[in-house]
Amino acid sequence: MKRGKLVDTPQTAAQAMEMAGLNFTVSKQPAGYVGADGQWHRSNHRVAIVRDDTGELFEFVSPDYEIFQYAEAFDFMDAIRPHYVAAGPLKGGRQAFLVVEPERSEFTVGGDDKHDLYAILRTSHDRSRAIEVTLMALRGRCMNQLTLSTFGRDAKYRWSIPHTRSMREKLIQAQHVMAQLDEYTTEFQHLAERLMRSRPEEDKVRSILAKHVTPWAKKQDEVLDTILHLWHENEEQVGFNDTSWGVVSAVSEYFDWGRSRGTPESRFLNALQGVTHTTINRVTKELLELTA
To answer: CB of 229 within 8 A of CB of 242?
Structure first.
């Protein structure tokens, strides 16, 4: 919530975009090249996506590429009037995100491990992504960001949304997002509780961490020792010490808060799709295999 928290409560996606400074528009402009004759030649195959208020070039696309302004891309959620709690630009405005909180966002695993679940909507004006939904659990004990796969077929944590102008289809898409939130919560709880019952040997945990966490680290042993110490000893932020869920939480704690954290934007993107997300999910998958 350090990134894009909305102070007021918007009623629509358009209002959220305005509060976040994302109510600018983009348009398609002619694209071309300077030929050998020194003259500018217009291309029939590409156009430029340009930010209208600043003239900044975002991307080159085909002439039939359809633009959806940010508010227009996210307005399908207005059909169910959710809580819009955060919004903001990414990559200098080339991408945008909107965070939606359901009516009952809080859930608990293991009796007292509280989480809040959010739907994060993202899209772009640089062709880097379509309209995408990612489910993120925010762990109350340590405020760690978890985009954790349930490793099942039915409870997705990420999917794309086709754009539509039909109000009926918009309602269906919004209802689908909320239904997925409920299904994901159930599967997340089952996954966490399964890991809570598992107590892996330290040598096996060290081997998993060495495989997935530290190949990039300059001081591999130091990083391993830090995470293992969190797993064994840190009850306040990590908890569930010596269990597989404790390993997941220790890795999450290290990547979100222990290493060089960078900017709020980089932490957010890493949790959504970068090294934080990838590492936590790889470690979790191996720990689950130990419980099979």
So the answer is: no
**What digits encode the pLDDT tens for the residues 5-32?**
887 889 999 999 999 999 999 999 999 9
DSSP H helices, 128-274, are 167-196, 202-212, 220-233, 244-253, 264-272
Residue 75's CB is within 10 A of a number of other CB atoms, namely 19
Concatenating the DSSP letter of every residue in 220-261 gives: HHHHHHHHHHHHHH-TTTT-STTSHHHHHHHHHHIIIIIS--
Rounded CA gap, 173 and 178, in Å? 9
Is there a contact between 135 and 181 (Cβ–Cβ < 8 Å)? yes
Q: Which whole-number Å values give the CA distances from 169 to 92, 138, 175, 176, 272, in the listed order?
A: 31, 30, 10, 10, 27
Task: Report helix, strand and coil shares of the chain as percent, to nearest 5.
Answer: 40, 25, 35
Q: Which helix H or strand E contains 71, and what residues bound it?
A: helix 70-74
Which amino acid appears at position 100 of this protein? V
Cα atoms found within 13 Å of the Cα of residue 3, Cβ hemisphere only: 19
Are the C-beta atoms of 170 and 164 separated by less than 8 Å? yes
- Contact present, 10 and 23 (Cβ < 8 Å): no
Q: What is the 3-state secondary structure (H, E, C) of 28-46?
A: EEEEEEECCCCCEEEEEEE
Q: Whole-prediction pTM value?
A: 0.89
Alpha-carbon distance 111 to 129, whole Å?
38
CA distance 110 to 127: 41
Give the other-Cβ count within 10 Å of 113's Cβ. 19
Strand, helix or coil for residue 186: helix
pLDDT tens-digit readout, 225-238? 999 999 999 998 89
